[in-house]
Amino acid sequence: DQQVKQNSPSLSVQEGRISILNCDYTNSMFDYFLWYKKYPAEGPTFLISISSIKDKNEDGRFTVFLNKSAKHLSLHIVPSQPGDSAVYFCAATSANSGGSNYKLTFGKGTLLTVNP
Amino acid sequence: DAGVIQSPRHEVTEMGQEVTLRCKPISGHNSLFWYRQTMMRGLELLIYFNNNVPIDDSGMPEDRFSAKMPNASFSTLKIQPSEPRDSAVYFCASTPDRVKHIQYFGAGTRLSVL
User: Fold this and answer.
1) Nearest Cβ partner of A106 from B43, B95, B100?
2) Mapping DSSP to helix (H, G, I), strand (E, B) and coil, where does residue A36 land?
3) Residues in chain B, pLDDT under 50
4) N or C terminus of chain A: which is more exposed, having fewer CB within 10 Å?
5) Do B77 and B21 meet the contact criterion of CB atoms below 8 Å apart?
């Protein structure tokens, strides 16, 4: 039972355009969400996060939007650059469920290709 | 800081053999995580430790898998005996308590069991 779903295995965009990566979740206990980026032969690296008390968080070219009622979040990259080509993982956790909860549940990832 | 260090980077072994994967977390990080990545299941948590104590091992697939953290700077994930379906990339990650949900990953160990 996948609690975090990234339904698009891949996405291709032109340099300079917007990239939108989507993520859906089913567990209503999730209240903190993260995006990780992964290059080949490397481990995932943290990109941006958002708490459920917000609906938007922005960091430079990266913005994450959260729609709690739809249990949906998205990552916007504007403008997209060839160096953004990577696999993007969505992750979720129940941050307020207890001090000992460190678990992240990951989606399967979306491969973004930004063409020059 | 050298980041999370995993060894070996690649491991090829035959079915039935014992495999030991190693991880050195970032100094000062209190929690350590072992993940497995496959095409079918994506990135799944196997086990995590906090202050060297196993907190949740519900993701460990079966008794053939075991993990230890004898001290704050070292952890192992052992598979005995290994099977072809164990072939995957295994990641180790660590995090400090103050930002516990932002995990720092190693480069992974690619395991192939023939």
Assistant:
1) B43
2) strand
3) none
4) N
5) yes
pLDDT at site A101: 66
Instruction: Identify the residue whose tokens are 């960091």.
Output: A59
CA quadruple B83, A39, B100, A105: dihedral, nearest 10: -50
Range A83-107 burial, b when 16+ CB lie within 10 A, else e: ebbbbbbbbbbbbeeeeebbbbbbb
Compute the nearest-CA separation of A81 from chain B (Å). 23
CB-based contact A100 B50, cutoff 8 Å: yes
Q: Could you give the CA distance from residue B35 to residue B50 in angstroms, rounded to a whole number? A: 15
Tell the residue number behind the tokens 């519900």, with chain if given. B58
Q: Determine the pLDDT at residue A95.
A: 74
Q: What is the pLDDT of residue A96?
A: 66
Query: Token digits for A38?
Result: 């992964």
Tell me what the pLDDT averaged over chain A comes to: 93
